[in-house]
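Sequence design from tokenized structure. All designs in this work follow the same two-part layout: the structure record, then the generated sequence. An example of the structure record is given first.
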């Protein structure tokens, strides 16, 4: 049978290992959560940049085009008809 000193050392090592495992798991989880949040932020920034670029391209393409909204004060019916005739 094992002596009391050996049992104390065994259980001390066991409990130390359990507490080390818990603390190590928490630190790994915290690092993983931080990386996940960092990735999500950069993904949103990337999507916003893509949307801004698409909006800019859309605005640039409409500058050279004809205004088709009759409520717009810059609307010109003659230019619109000329554009339709050139398209067909």
């Amino acid at each position: 049978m094992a002596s009391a000193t050996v049992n104390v050392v065994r259980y001390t090592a066991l409990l130390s290992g359990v507490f080390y495992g818990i603390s190590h798991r928490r630190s790994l989880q915290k690092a993983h959560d931080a990386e996940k949040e960092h990735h999500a932020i950069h993904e949103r920034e990337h999507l916003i940049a893509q949307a801004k670029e698409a909006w800019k391209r859309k605005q640039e393409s409409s500058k050279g085009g004809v205004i088709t909204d009759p409520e717009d004060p810059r609307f010109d019916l003659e230019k619109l008809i000329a554009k339709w005739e050139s398209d067909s």
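The mean pLDDT is 89. We note this feature because it recurs in several other targets discussed in the main text.
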